[in-house]
Amino acid sequence: MQLREAADALGVHYQTAYGWVRQGVLPARKVGRGYEVAQEDVARLAASRARGSEPSRQIRVRDWSGIAGRFFAALSDGAETRARAELSRLAGAVSLLDLCEQVIVPALRRIGEEWLAGQLSIAHEHRASAICERLIALHASQPSGRPRGVAVVATPPGERHSLPALMAAACLREDHWLVHHLAADLPVAEVLALSADARADLIVMSTSTTAAANRARRDFEAARPADWAGMAGMVAPPRLLIGVPGQTLRDLVLLARGSTGNDIQTTPRRTEQ
Ligand code: B12
Fold first, then answer.
1. 66-72 — which CB contacts under 8 Å span 24+ positions?
2. 159 touches ligand 1 (CB under 6 Å)
3. Which residue owns the Cα nearest ligand 1 atom 85?
4. Is this model's pTM higher than 0.85 or not?
């Protein structure tokens, strides 16, 4: 079958399937301008993904900081193709969590430092963010199989830094959560209503400043009984995780699984109606 059909059958973007071909994860034969893959190879890869395992080719990266440096340079030049190539070389062979934590996050931090130092303009920062959004979307996919639970991911009112929430959504998906990603700057009442509707187990609020995290905590605590009303029929209200700058995506994944205690983890009280 054609690679595009194989990508559809595997439930991934064409670029992801193409990346697997380039890395030798999915055997393929070049025919004209496209690729042909055998049905058995697609079935084998689909079965391995359904078992929850990543595609088999795992590599140990020795020089994360070199890659992050090149990725940063591509981002600040607005060279999307170069930035994409840095990630595509690794995609499928390392987890998306590592791709974010080891490459994208350090590059974004550096963008922030250079912006603060007046070396990059606001327009450069916006361009870099938009490139990151497209590249993360390219490598994010919902694994098949039974989800671990349902999570709603957003940023609190006034928080326009949407990338941490995008990365949080992508990494939770990789960890087999079914994620409703609501992007940025949402009123708490809206988040609660959708969470009730989606019967969420978890609400994740991503923030990039301590002020936004404090505001989020205050807004959730102050939410009116009517805002929680939709939760009334649920066996248990969702857990609320509010991320603060300095915490990592790995912290998030562990907190979401409930395998580590942390005072940031807030269990919302059910308010009497
Ligand atoms: C890109 C960017 C922007 C873009 C955002 C575009 C977008 N689509 O997201 C734009 C241009 C909009 C922007 C605007 C502003 N920005 Co800005 N921005 C950044 C930059 C460069 C990257 C942001 C980012 O994605 N960070 C993600 C990673 C790199 O950071 P992190 O905070 O450690 O995030 C981790 C955790 O959040 C974790 N995580 C995610 N979710 C969850 C959930 C849980 C539960 C847990 C445990 C973990 C977790 O995952 C992330 C990755 O590990 C940062 C630099 C930086 N150091 O972050 C500045 C930065 C955050 N911005 C800053 C500022 C000041 C602003 C503005 C106020 C500027 C202004 N005067 O207008 C506005 C504020 C807008 C608003 N109201 O929100 C400052 C904040 C300083 C501070 N501490 O207050 C920073 C740090 C830049 C700097 N060096 O000074 N910004």
1. 67/102, 67/103, 68/102, 68/103, 68/106, 68/107, 71/103, 71/104, 71/107, 72/106, 72/107, 72/110, 72/111
2. yes
3. 112
4. no
